[in-house]
Amino acid sequence: MLIISALILLGIIQGLKVYTRQSEIIQVPNLNHKTLGEALKILEKNSLYGEVVDSIYQRDKPMNTIYDVVPAQGSKVKTGRTIFLKIYSSTPTKKALPDIKDLPLRAAKETLKRLGFIHFTEKEVEGLHKGLCVGIETEDGKLLQAGNRISIESNLVLLISGKETETLTVDDLISSETDSITPPVDSIYTQEIENKEEDVQPDNWF
User: Residue 23 above 80 pLDDT?
Assistant: First the structure.
């Protein structure tokens, strides 16, 4: 009975090894700087699969090349395992523009930089307060709105109030209205004299 029990236990252990493929452990190959096509072929030769899970855009990096893998290079995995790939994208990331209207120039730039926008030029426009960002345009003059999704590589034209617009106070308006309604004193006096002369009738000499 003891011998039979030992044989059964040994059979179970061997069966678990086969089932879990513990004898088929391999290391994740080095895929960094390989193109996506090259990486998939290498994984296939090692009985592994590849799946792209993330991508970033960097202007100075080769497009569609691997920059990271999960599990990391050298990790021990079972055959048939899926290796998650991170690549350099061929197209820039697009993000929604934030609302930077009425922010000071420095604060507007910092808000955009935190989202990844780095290319700016400035254009002076009239505004109520000097030094505030009043909007964003494209290079060809198209006005952009907060929430528009554009490439983080886009060249943005920040519209900055460089000259304050002339504003009228209540006193200015009252003075202007009075000037337009009330004629000069000399004019009033002259008009009264002319009216009196018209009212005087000549004497009847006959």
Answer: no
Cβ neighbours for 90, distance < 8 A, ≥ 6 positions apart: 57, 63, 64
At 51, list the tokens. 């799946």
Quick check: 88 and 58 in contact, CB under 8 A? Answer: yes
121 assigned to some structural domain: yes
Residue 118's pLDDT is 87
Residue 188 lies in a domain: no
Spatial separation of the C-alpha atoms in residues 76 and 105, rounded to whole Å: 52
DSSP state of 10: H
Full domain range(s) for residue 47:
24-88
Predicted TM-score (pTM) of the model is 0.47
Question: What is the CA angle 45-50-52, rounded to 5?
Answer: 150
CB 26, CB 49: distance < 8 Å: no
Mark whether 102 and 149 lie in a shared domain. Answer: yes
The single-letter code of the amino acid at 131 is: G
